[in-house]
Amino acid sequence: MDFLDSYCRNPRRIAEYFVICGLSENPKPYDLSKVITNAEEIIIPEKSVDFTDFPEPIVDIQVTGNEIPSFLKFINLKEKDSVPDGFHVIRRSITGKFKANIEGRIGDEVYLCYRRGRDKPPITNISMFVDNGDRSLRPGATKISKTLDGKNANLRYGLMHPAYISYSRASASSGIDQLAVIDMCIIIPSKQETCPPAFNKIPESLTSNPLVPYVYLCFRKSLIKQHTIAYEPEILFRYHVPPMSMEFDHAVNNQTERDSLAQDQHQSLADSVNYESDEPIDPEICQVANFCLPWGASLESWSVEQDCPQPNHFTFVLTNETSQRLYGVAFTFHEPYDVKNLDKDQCYRLGVDPEPLFPSRTATDTSTSPLHSTDELDPEEEARITARQKHFLRSRVGDRVVGVTKTMCLLSRWSFPVAFANFLAFLYSRCYPAANSDPIPLERYLAYFLCEVPFPDQSTPNILVELCAAPILLQLPIETNASSSCEPFFYLLSQLGVDLTINLFVHMLTEQKILLTSVHHFLLTQIGEALTSVGVHLLGGVGYMIFPLQWAVVYIPFIYMGHVQVIQSPSPYLIGVDSRFFDFFRMPPGGGGVTYVDLDTKNFIPANCPGQIVLDAKLLPAEPLKELRTTLTRLHRQIRELHHRRSEASTNFLLKCLFTEPGSELAQSELNALRLRTDIGVRVKEAFMQFMARLLKNYRAYLIPVRDAERDQLFNSKGL
Predict the structure, then answer these.
(1) What pLDDT sits at residue 597?
(2) What percent of the chain has pLDDT over 90?
(3) How many CA atoms lie within 13 A of 715 on its CB side?
């Protein structure tokens, strides 16, 4: 296809802005005063609000008789087992009202205990293992088979198949971005206790005796970072894509223009160009930076024995007062920090030995003092560290490595989450770890993607940009919701399952307060987009003016902690937030009428409002609901099969794709997987569309004109 001809017919731009956020030359400490003031009612009492404070993970310091380490131990208080030093015994359930006895035999008092620390690789998962002969432990998992005094730790005492608690551990070289278990608790559902927010409930009961209440183990996972300093994030570079033109002399590779664009960082992103009357209100610089780096621009350090932090991507949505949306795709990564800029206070806070950076005055030759000494390391060990740290080696100080967070972001009026994420990942792979191996500068890639790749139209609805094996597929957006793909519906069903998806649908139709949490920010926006599309756009209307359904209330699929007070809003909303929210905050007093859903654990806590009817699938018509559930169940089965094939293959697909040529077998495989996800998403959306069509059939017949209706009756509820 002729690109120039495409521009003449379709002047839309793929993106509005390209932005780089990070740590400025003169950074300011991260300001928490507004957070503390505005969110005072939801701050956990006696909790210090410090976003760089990460809890210690649960670790293993005990050894059983068969030399298998175990982080969890059974304590039999009746037989006076001694509690190991540093262990915490779970004596009470989550409410503190009941004993957390997990032993089913009458008269026994057996409890769980654990220890936190950083001296061993942390625990990453906990589950129940039933030894029925057909199942085996997951690779790398360990079961707790003995109590402290050497007795059998079988939880199914007297039954045919024994059951044990099992756990998995991170590798010794796991990085600071590893998710690990940081807390555990016991709940007793028969005592009206529920799984706490952000916790994962093990579905099997720890007790099997029908004469005692069933008790369940819940655990929570979070990051295991330790040495972090947060600063106010700032825009380091911004580029506003100009209007489409017949000429491309304005491309980003003009160094003079790039420098001029980066000078004034205190104005709106669109101060330099204003060319469309219907263009969304441009976000302020600080707002974009806070969304791109929601925890601030951070200096972080890790051991030379740990893997480097992996880059990650996520999406967010900026909305103005007229409900116009600007979609952002952020790609966050670490890059080596110039350790010569560290002061002594930063060294102490990062766990870095300041001596190599600030040698004593008695040193004979300070000018040649190395930042790291290799005297104690043999060549083989030094080579192993070099291979692990790669380009971060230049920011090594002794046995620590210092990195700084940075984000590349594309802002667009259209939603291209996968394509933008893969393009930004491609830029990262070419311009950072492999900067010396690619002669093409970053500006040329940007000019090609932002100014030369045509926008999809009716004649060419799919534009495939072949830069690497990772699929950069631009699909024609749907006019009603600016979405370029039905992938959000795939993630919705994949992450939540059939029942929870339908329950959320009911809450969307009835305009409830919905709070989504996840440690994966990408999922928050994807599922938020799917939910608003299900509740708003399935009737085939134009734009957002759809009768009778319209999500006209607050919609923030991902909010950074600086504005977390918005969850106290009295009006309905759909808001997504990082799961670390519960490290520092709690739900509004009395629950605030908020329905809570954790996307990682499928933990669903409906709003507890006195006098309000229970909102669930039973409110929906039986026959259409049955068809909807049948269709979603079939599609969910296909999703599980797709995940199973993926888990059996290689691990880091994105990294592998970035260094693989387009047109290869891997590239075709990834493109097929993308299209399969989109196809499943389309069918999920169609299932809801068919349901809505049946639900709203003859809807007008049940409407009562305002003039003819009684004052206390505006809708004929009997028609339902």
Answers:
(1) 94
(2) 28
(3) 4
Higher pLDDT, 75 or 567: 567
pLDDT higher than 50, residue 354: yes
3-state SS track over 200-249: EECCCCCCCCCCCCCCEEEEEEEECCCCEEEECCEEEEEEECCCCCCCCC
The answer to the question of residue 475 being in a domain is no
Q: What per-residue confidence (pLDDT) applies to 360? A: 62
CA distance between the termini of the chain: 53
Cα–Cα distance, 115 to 117 (Å, whole number):
7
Residue 136 is assigned to a structural domain of this protein: yes
Q: Report pLDDT digits (tens) over 105-135.
A: 555 677 888 889 988 899 999 998 888 777 7
CA 697 to chain centre: 38
354's tokens: 């300041």
Domains held by the chain: number: 3
With beta carbons less than 8 A apart as the criterion, state whether 490 and 687 touch. Answer: no
Tell me, what CATH number does 583's domain have?
Answer: 3.40.50.11500
Q: Are strands 594-598 and 513-518 parallel, antiparallel or unpaired?
A: parallel
- Residue 534 pLDDT exceeds 60: no
Dist CA 680 CA 592 (whole Å): 36
How many H-runs (helices) and E-runs (strands) does the chain carry?
14, 27
Of 156, 522, 77, nearest in space to 327 by CA: 522
| Rounded Cα distance, 573 and 511, in Å | 8
pLDDT reported for residue 241: 85
Note the Cα 38 to chain centre separation in Å: 25
Tokens standing for 27?
């950074």
Tell me: do 238 and 218 sit in the same domain: no
List of long-range contacts for 357-361, beta carbons under 8 Å, 24+ apart: 357/397
Residue 130's contacts (CB-CB under 8 Å, 6 or more residues apart) are 156, 161, 162, 163, 204
Question: What is the residue whose two structure tokens read 């915490």?
Answer: 88
- Residue that terminates a domain, selected from 223, 258, 280: 223
Strand stretches in 538-609, DSSP E: 554-556, 573-578, 594-598, 603-605
**Could you tell me how far CA 71 lies from the centroid of its own chain?**
27
**pLDDT at residue 350 in the model:** 94
Distance CA 592, CA 42 (A): 11
List, for residues 437-461, the tens digit of each pLDDT value.
677 888 888 999 998 898 888 888 8
Query: Do 236 and 254 lie in a common domain?
Result: yes
Answer for the pair 242, 452: CB distance below 8 angstroms, yes or no: no
Q: Which two tokens stand for residue 182?
A: 């940081």
Measured CA to CA, the distance from residue 453 to residue 450 in angstroms comes to 6
Angle between helices 487-509 and 521-536 (to 10 degrees): 60
Q: Assess contact for 65 and 78: CB atoms under 8 A.
A: no
Give the chain's largest Cα–Cα span: 98
The answer to whether the peptide bond before residue 417 is cis (omega within 30 degrees of 0) is no
**Residue 658 pLDDT level (bands cut at 50, 70, 90):** low
Per-residue pLDDT reduced to its tens digit, 10-35: 467 899 899 999 999 899 999 888 88
Query: 594 and 627: one domain?
Result: yes
Domain of residue 88, residue span: 58-223
pLDDT greater than 50 at residue 251: no
Length of the chain: 720
User: Is there a domain that residue 42 lies in?
Assistant: no
Bridge-based pairing of strands 73-76 and 396-397 is unpaired
Asked if 299 and 404 touch (Cβ cutoff 8 Å), the reply is yes
Express the helix, strand and coil content of the chain in percent, nearest 5 each: 30, 20, 45
Is pLDDT at 59 greater than 90 in this prediction?
Answer: no
More confident residue, 696 or 301: 301
Q: pLDDT (tens digit, 9 = 90+) per residue, 38-54?
A: 888 888 887 788 888 88
In whole angstroms, give the CA distance from residue 170 to residue 307. 12
